[in-house]
Amino acid sequence: MRTGFWFLVVGSSAALTHMLVFALVAPYLLPELANAVGFCVAFSVSFAGHRYLSFQDAGTSLWQSFLRFGITALAGFAANELVFSALLRGLDLPSLLALGFALVFAAAQTFLLSRFWAFRRASH
Question: Is residue 110 within 8 Å of residue 14, measured between CB atoms?
């Protein structure tokens, strides 16, 4: 229960960071590149929060968690970017709305990979 609560808090904070950075740089970049910049900034918020709050009982080292979470986050970003582009280009949704849907879509995947692999709990 505690893991889910903190995952939601940290994930929401990272998503808001992602969206804020996206909104700031979108006027100067292609939307897909602005999405990537938002992801890069939000990654540090997400990793730190998940390591020290959501999955504080992780049985992996900091470095191992960082590498695994990096892979997890990149997989989530790939899903995010695909959904974002499909909604933006295919359905012509406004960019922030498309990004919001894409972030929600990728969150479930990120949770599962984080919980059961990147920050796997120590065996007792």
Answer: no
Q: DSSP for 53-98, please give it.
A: IITTTBSS-HHHHHHHHHHHHHHHHHHHHHHHHIIIIIS---HHHH
Residue spans per domain, the chain:
2-118
Question: What does the block give as tokens for 52?
Answer: 């020290």
- pLDDT tens per residue, range 86-103: 999 999 999 999 999 999
Q: What is the mean pLDDT of residues 9-32?
A: 96
| Distance spanning both ends of the chain, measured CA to CA | 19
CA-closest candidate to residue 79, choices 61, 104, 54, 62 = 104
Considering only CA atoms, which of 14, 24, 10 is closest in space to residue 95? 24
Instruction: Pick the closest to residue 11 from 46, 53, 35 (CA basis).
Output: 46
Predicted confidence (pLDDT) per residue in 29-70, tens digit? 999 999 999 999 999 999 999 888 887 777 778 898 899 889
Tokens of 82: 């695909």
Rg (CA), the chain: 15
